[in-house]
Description:
This protein is mainly alpha-helical.
Amino acid sequence: MRGDQHVSxxxxxxxxxxxxxxxxxxPFTAVVLLFGTFVGSVAPDADAADAAIFNGRVxxxxxxxxxxxNGLAVVLPIFGYTIxxxxxxxxxxxxxxxxxxxxRHRHRGLLHSLPGVGLxxxxxxxxLAILMAWLGVSLALxxxxxxxxxxxxxxxxxxxxxxxxxxxxxxxxxRRRVSGRVRAERFFExxxxxxxxxxxxxxxxxxxxxxxxxxxxxxxxxxALAAVLILWLLxxxxxxxxxxxxxx
Length: 248
């Protein structure tokens, strides 16, 4: 999918999930969590030189929404080059030495797998911890960023699993992948936009629910989690996601 689609779907999903918690968590923590999701939503494409994470721009939309996203995107190249040269290449070298001919650099390879994004989240968090300690900055918000970043990466994989190129979730340990029929570059492909809108509407509903219903906090958390799971399941079904043969 395109960078703007990754960002909108990932942020909308995270907003729906954390909506019931906004009354009890610090607003700055929520902002850091969403920022981590924003970075993570485009981070797996750091294995492609022309990715949005290197361009400092993720949206072609005009208006306030596009300006906000592109304003935040100015910092993305810092993360992009850090991930590409200080994380992706080193861990690729390790896998190359361990697996030899069974591993090679490729787009939608290591950075589009759970092992890859898991290691990337851990190493990036370690780099940030070292930098913050050196600058004398509190590490209190680092877990929020790390969780948001990892969540954004996993959502990126889910989104790409809906496209024909698909995702090999366990690469390089397994080359089997899943793929769908969403062709994000086509003009008439509206499924990602519709799904993002549904997620935003659901998140808005959960936010206003305490003021118009008698639902408890625990009930709203359950509803938000169920909504995320059910809506994503429906989107995967609508995208025709299926398991493919072994990836060559």
